[in-house]
Amino acid sequence: MMQYITEIKNVISSLLRYLHRNAWTIIFILAGGYFLFDNFIHPFIHQYQTKQSYKQATDPNRVAVLSPDMRRVRAKQQQLAEKRAAEAKEERKQHEKAERERKRVKSPEEERWDKLGGKGKKLGSEDSSNAELRQRR
User: Fold this and answer.
1) What does the alpha-carbon distance between residue 112 and residue 94 come to, in Å, rounded to a whole number?
2) Alpha-carbon gap, residue 115 to 107, rounded angstroms
3) pTM of the full predicted structure?
4) Is there a contact between 53 and 46 (Cβ–Cβ < 8 Å)?
5) In the predicted model, what is the mean pLDDT of residues 88-94?
6) CA dist., res. 2 & res. 11, Å (int)
7) For 106, which of 16, 72, 81, 110 could close a Cys bridge (C-beta 3.0–4.6 Å)?
8) Centroid of chain to Cα 114
9) Higher confidence at residue 88 or residue 107?
10) Which residue has the higher pLDDT, 111 or 34?
11) How many CA within 13 A on the CB side of residue 132?
12) Lowest mean per-residue pLDDT among 6-10, 21-25, 61-65, 118-122
């Protein structure tokens, strides 16, 4: 048992001596490896994966299966868009009508009618007192 411990101790000490002697070399190798991977290897891998993805996406068998589903989904989206457009058009018309009514200048008769809250008699109507006077004559 003691023999294994001394052997492990010797391996660790020789490893530390190696690292101490070659520290800068190891750092430069790691930095160079990172630079090569980041600037040359990684772009190549990315390009390869992109080509593979495009091949799979444009595979005729896959496209034939997905095309009917895509058409169905697009038709449904189109129907929803048309429905929303019709609702928006109707809402816009109502808003424009309300805006025109708000901006419209009212006649003095309409203003009096609004002040009375819609109560009372309009001039010239059958219920007005002038109509009763005319009938009495």
Assistant:
1) 26
2) 12
3) 0.41
4) no
5) 96
6) 14
7) 110
8) 47
9) 88
10) 34
11) 4
12) 118-122
Give me 93's structure tokens. Answer: 């018309």
Segment (H or E) for 96: helix 60-103
The amino acid that residue 8 corresponds to is I
Rg (CA), the chain: 44
Contact present, 125 and 131 (Cβ < 8 Å): yes
Distance from C-alpha of 60 to C-alpha of 41, rounded to nearest angstrom: 31
Q: Which residue has the tokens 């109502």?
A: 94
Interval 99-125 mean pLDDT: 74
| Phi/psi of residue 114, nearest 5 degrees | -70, -35
Cα dist from 10 to 18, 19, 20, 21, 40, whole Å:
12, 14, 15, 17, 40
The per-residue pLDDT for 129 is 53
Q: Cβ–Cβ contacts within 10 Å for residue 128, how many?
A: 14
Structural contact between residues 123 and 129, judged by C-beta atoms closer than 8 angstroms: no
Amino acid at 98: A
Segment 17-24 mean pLDDT: 93
d(CA 18, CA 15): 5
Please provide residue 77's backbone torsions phi and psi, each rounded to the nearest 5 degrees: -60, -40
